[in-house]
Amino acid sequence: MEHRKTYIRHTLPHDDSEIVLEGPVTPSHLRSLRMHPELDAFRRPKDQLTALIEIAGLPEGRIILARVNEVIIGYVTFHYPDEMERWSQGSMQDLIELGAIEVANDYRSLKIGSRLIRTAFEDGQMEKYIVFTTEYYWHWDLKSSGLTVWDYRKMMERLMQTVDMVWYATDDPEICSHPANCLMVRIGKEVPLESEEQFDRIRFQQRFMY
Predict the structure, then answer these.
(1) What is the rounded CA–CA span in Å between residue 98 and residue 8?
(2) Which segments constitute the N-acetyltransferase domain (predicted)?
């Protein structure tokens, strides 16, 4: 499958400088940048930058980032689901995971997250894909945000809804392990019916329970 990647760049005035929102970016571009020290939700900033470089080099991988000069202050990743997860079953070429989104604390009031996601979907780049994200409460920054689990869940739903991702039911054990966890999905306009049906079979594997 051909993965079309069209570079998009936006700027946002901020204090005496500007925030650049851009992507999909190349591994070489990422190597010229450094991570904001607060971007440590998944691993140490330096190690996370290494992971972003690896994702950017994948045929289907996409990194959309926000930066101030050479400092990355936020990013969102897109890639095929991990082979250890049920979502990789069938090796669907048009099923892409919105894997991680992170914004440094000092910039969270600027709606950087929603701007990053909207940038990723510009120019019809994602219309050939079923894009999904799995939201688990244990990944949420409840401490820094001061939000309850349910308020954070609502915030994440609003964020994903900016690109028309909606809640989908599933019997996936990890998602079902806590009522705040959820699966959100957007089916592109060019996705064939066969792919939608295959995704439904992946979502529900214990039909006898319903």
Answers:
(1) 18
(2) 19-170
Q: What are the tokens at 172? A: 């996936």
Task: Identify which of 18, 20, 19 has the alpha carbon closest to the alpha carbon of residue 9.
Answer: 20
Picking from 91, 189, 90, 172, the residue whose alpha carbon sits closest to that of residue 133 is 172
Residue from 51, 109, 43, 101 nearest 76 by CA:
101
CA distances (Å), origin 126, targets 6, 64, 161? 11, 13, 15
**pLDDT per position as a tens digit, 190-209:** 999 999 999 999 999 876 54
Partners of 75 in the beta sheet? 65, 102
Domains, the chain: 8-203 (3.40.630.30)
What does pTM read for this prediction?
0.92
Tokens of 142: 């409840």
- DSSP run (H or E) holding 64: strand 62-68
Q: For residues 90, 134, 168 and 197, what is the CA-based torsion angle, rounded to 10 degrees? A: -10
The span from the CA of 93 to the CA of 106, in Å, is 37
Give the tokens for residue 121. Answer: 């979907």
β-sheet bridge partners, residue 210: none
Residue 185 makes CB contacts below 8 A (sequence gap 6+) with 130, 131, 132, 165, 166, 168, 199
